[in-house]
């Protein structure tokens, strides 16, 4: 017996995450009626064709009418503007939530527009792929991934609990965290890795000594792993860096300090230092696989390979 | 009808690459008799149990007796020492080759020990996984991957052709390149990506504000992709950095220059600059997928996902 959490759910923004929320909510059967919208008319049309929601509204004002919960799935830089638009149309007691990769800046942007009675439960599902748009979404995206809720003084306990159960219904594991701590954790586990990946792919595209064709042909030596995350949605990621500047710069500072030390090891031929670091980093991957956040399949299962024995992971 | 390229092939060093060469050679049926050895007695024992070679010799001197071709599959720092050991025992006309990720330093290390008549064909199959040891190898590892040959004045045309055909028989595509150019290409497509991955995984392991458990739990946001290559064999990679220092430092210099510019964009909130870079980097991935060096499957096929339409890749 599935618990009905919301009679009427509205999702604003129909990209990878937004349409995955819609698909997961329908698959889980936790909501009665799903109303969606997107600022882009071609996206709205595509979502009508995909037939994943009950109603595709023309405007966000119309979409939020009578909604018990509204989930913003727009780039984080849009959050304040969207809430300013929909606020006068929110039902009394409606729960507002989001899926942004940044939490402090979203709270700051939303707060001035939040109606007096409204509950806002900031949320961030740590899941995604390198693809964007409504066709990229799928119901299983959040399965076994973490969703972080960052309740603050404007989040009611009932609203936070409802979002908690909604995300659990999507197959996610839910954790609660301080907004500021969230931004620091994600800076190192997601934002800086993306920045570095974008950077090396950019560097490789601009060399005189090595052609782009060579970069592509011989990418299996490591480079191609970086290109996956450097193919992520540009608008979303621009907004992440603009809105989590302090934590990103702080973590990037640590990274570059460590890189200078590593560069010195290479320059001075410090084999013991290199070996020690390269041994230590193996342990982290074992932990990630043990946490169920990664596959132990050889090469991400890209190719046919041997069974992986316990001792190897 | 398979072409018999060598009557007797010797492989020295029985890790991921060495045992994959052995398995591929047997699967392809291009060699008559396969003799192997490894400096580590437990590895030799394991390879006997795996029963992938005709003879597991106790020493490299014994292993190379009567061999038509000898392929070194040892960490690049060992190349000179191994050749010094086996040189007096090489058959007249034997072809020597290797699989090292670095070519100039290997040639320099091997050259002083190379017998007057011997032919040395440096080779580098651009393939691998994050696993090490004799159990990690598999015959299909080189399928559709590139193998770069870097013939130089001590490589005969006949020897180079034989190695070319051997690697093609393993399913690889073969390219010939200047040794120095190889080292520059691989510095950007493989060595610097590994260095950066090792570095960020190391940085993440040493934060006070963020626990290791948090790093592991929330790694699906991007970080985990880096951990795969930061789990690669520490000995092999230490030797790569010690032996391709100049090219690695050169490419790392470009990377850090670009990173400083990117850091400034974040600091100054240059959204247009960020968006422009993030859009540009998408094209490189499309090229890699078009080159057949990567899968277009969502998330490396880690999870169940939608079909990927042509327009998305």
Explain how this protein is built.
Two copies of one chain form a homodimer. Chain A is α/β, with parallel strands linked by helices. The first copy, chain A, folds into two domains: 6-177, Rossmann fold (3-Layer(aba) Sandwich), CATH 3.40.50; 181-312, 6-phosphogluconate dehydrogenase C-terminal like domain (6-phosphogluconate dehydrogenase C-terminal fold, Orthogonal Bundle), CATH 1.10.3660.10. The first copy, chain A, is 47% helix and 12% strand. Chain A has twelve helices and nine strands. Chain A has helices at residues 16-28, 41-50, 60-63, 79-86, 104-110, 157-169, 179-204, 212-217, 223-229, 234-243, 245-268, 271-290, and strands spanning 6-12, 31-37, 55-56, 69-72, 95-98, 119-121, 123-126, 146-149, 173-176. In chain A, the strands form two sheets. A six-stranded parallel sheet of chain A has the order 3-2-1-4-5-6. In chain A, helix 6 links the parallel strand 8 and strand 9 (173-176). In chain A, helix 4 runs parallel beside helix 5, helix 7 (179-204) crosses helix 9 (223-229) and helix 7 crosses helix 11 (245-268). The two termini of chain A are 39 Å apart. At the A-B interface, helix 7, helix 8, helix 9, helix 10 and helix 11 of A face helix 7, helix 8, helix 9, helix 10 and helix 11 of B. Chains A, B: Its EC number is 1.3.1.12. Chains A, B: Residues 7-296 form the Prephenate/arogenate dehydrogenase domain. Chains A, B: InterPro entries: 6-PGluconate_DH-like_C_sf, NAD(P)-bd_dom_sf, PDH_C, PDH_N, Preph/Arog_dehydrog, Prephen_DH. Chains A, B: Keywords: Amino-acid biosynthesis, Aromatic amino acid biosynthesis, NAD, Oxidoreductase, Tyrosine biosynthesis.
């Amino acid at each position: 017996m599935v618990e009905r959490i919301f009679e009427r759910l509205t999702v604003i923004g129909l990209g990878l995450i937004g349409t995955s929320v819609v698909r997961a909510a329908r698959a889980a059967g936790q909501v009665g009626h799903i109303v969606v919208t997107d600022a882009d008319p071609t996206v709205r049309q595509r979502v009508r064709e995909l037939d994943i929601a009950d109603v595709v509204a023309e405007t966000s004002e119309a979409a939020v009418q009578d909604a018990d919960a509204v989930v913003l799935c727009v780039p984080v830089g849009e959050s304040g503007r969207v809430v300013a638009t929909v606020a006068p149309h929110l039902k009394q007691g409606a729960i507002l939530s989001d899926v942004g990769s940044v939490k402090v800046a979203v709270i700051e942007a939303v707060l001035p527009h939040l109606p007096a009675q409204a509950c806002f439960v900031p949320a961030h599902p740590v899941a995604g792929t390198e693809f964007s748009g409504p066709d990229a979404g799928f119901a299983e995206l959040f399965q076994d991934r973490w969703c972080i809720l960052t309740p603050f003084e404007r989040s009611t306990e009932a609203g936070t609990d409802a979002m908690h159960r909604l995300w659990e219904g999507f197959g996610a594991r839910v954790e609660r965290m301080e907004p500021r701590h969230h931004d620091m954790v994600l800076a190192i586990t997601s934002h800086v890795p993306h920045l570095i990946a974008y950077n090396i792919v950019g560097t490789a595209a601009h060399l005189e000594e090595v052609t782009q064709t060579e970069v592509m042909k011989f990418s299996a030596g490591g480079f191609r792993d970086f290109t996956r995350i450097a193919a992520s949605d540009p608008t979303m990621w621009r907004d992440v860096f603009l809105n989590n500047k302090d934590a990103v710069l702080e973590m990037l500072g640590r990274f570059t300090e460590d890189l200078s030390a590593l560069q010195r090891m290479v320059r001075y031929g410090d084999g013991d230092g290199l070996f020690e670091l390269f041994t230590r980093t193996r342990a982290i991957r074992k932990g990630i696989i043990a946490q169920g956040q990664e596959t132990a399949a050889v090469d991400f299962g890209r190719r046919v390979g041997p069974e992986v024995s316990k001792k190897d992971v």
